[in-house]
Design brief:
Blueprint: H1 5-24, H2 32-39, H3 45-80, H4 92-105, H5 111-131, H6 140-164, H7 167-178, H8 188-203, H9 205-212, H10 215-220, H11 225-247, H12 253-265, H13 269-293, H14 302-326
Helix pairs in contact: 1-3, 1-13, 2-3, 3-8, 3-11, 3-12, 3-13, 4-5, 4-6, 4-7, 4-11, 5-6, 5-11, 8-11, 8-13, 12-13, 12-14, 13-14
Length: 327
């Protein structure tokens, strides 16, 4: 394993800078001195309100969501043995979106939209898991194909719901689909879940390293491949459900971030998993900050910005991998 101290120093520094920028940048600019004074218990009432009640919960929610998506993406790529796998490839986000849009069309808000999205994501997970089971059990190819078909079906339902939505609900529905942290004001739950997920996945990093090299080799080394694959699938689906419930559909974080970490630090999941959490969280905090301030007072959908960042970045990564393979 390569020396990872410099890498994690850079990732921690990037996370700190991203969070600091999210707290300082906005319609009311806050200097580094004011920011530090407020975070350490000082500052005037207006500055405390802006930082502690408005910007900090949103920034922490964005960081936790980015970390969850990146971690889920890394797990999905191991499960399906496919570098193009991401947290949404098995239709989890489609199920969440259908349930959330139905809640919005019914005039519900807040808790009920979140509960509907989480329930829809879990229902989609169970459906894919049940349908993909064949005579030989769950195989990566069968899971992937079933997930793609289910995602396409959910996409058709989403199109119908958007066509049937009223003018008053349509804007909220579109923003939910494209990612929105406007109402993400309770990040503690997400941060606790993220910390627990990182600890659990790190404990299984060595089995993940073996499984990533092939199922046959994993069986020869005595790994319970079937149980491990089921655990990875359930964990990745739950992480995705939490992320989708918080901010809607945000693409490319779970796809691109694990690739960046593997290029920088190799394929050891003891490094890739925690590193992906830090990088994914930092990337989404930066994207959300840009979404807030780019056309202020109008707010852009953060999912659209992650796609704009992720597409060229993924093309660069693919070209770099091709050059490496030729050499």
């Amino acid at each position: 394993m390569r020396s990872v101290v410099p890498l994690f120093a850079v990732l921690l520094g990037a996370a700190a800078l991203a969070l600091s920028g999210a707290l300082a940048i906005g319609s009311v600019a806050i200097s580094p001195g004011e920011l530090w004074h407020t975070l350490t218990g000082g500052g005037n009432e207006m500055t405390r309100t802006i930082i502690l009640e408005l910007r900090l919960p949103r920034a922490l929610a964005a960081f936790a969501t980015g970390g969850l998506l990146a971690l889920a993406g890394a797990l999905m790529q191991v499960l399906l043995r496919n570098p193009l796998a991401d947290p949404y490839v098995l239709g989890v986000s489609g199920g969440a979106a259908v349930a959330a849009l139905l809640a919005i069309m019914a005039g519900l808000s807040g808790f009920w939209i979140d509960a509907g999205a989480f329930g829809g994501a879990l229902l989609a997970t169970l459906m894919v898991f049940a349908i993909a089971r064949g005579p030989g059990g769950w195989t990566p190819a069968r899971l992937l194909l079933t997930g793609i078909v289910m995602a396409a079906g959910f996409g058709a339902v989403i199109s119908l719901l958007l066509a049937l939505g009223t003018d008053t609900s349509l804007r909220g529905m579109l923003f939910w689909l494209m990612g929105d942290f406007s109402f993400a004001d309770r990040p503690a739950r997400l941060l606790v879940m993220l910390a627990a997920a990182v600890a659990a996945s790190f404990a299984f990093a060595r089995p993940l390293n073996v499984l990533a090299r092939g199922e046959v080799q994993a069986r020869l080394l005595g790994l319970p491949v079937r149980a491990l694959r089921i655990a990875i699938y359930i964990a990745a689906s739950l992480l995705t459900a939490l992320a989708v419930t918080t901010a809607g559909t945000i693409g490319f974080v779970g796809l691109v971030v694990p690739h960046v970490l593997r290029l920088a630090a190799g394929a050891d999941h003891r490094v890739v998993l925690p590193g992906a959490v830090l990088l994914g969280g930092s990337l989404l905090v930066l994207a959300d900050t840009l979404a807030r301030v780019a056309l202020a007072p109008r707010q852009l959908p953060v999912g659209a910005l992650t796609a704009l960042i992720g597409v060229p970045l993924f093309i660069v990564l693919m070209n770099r991998e091709q050059v490496t393979d030729r050499s």
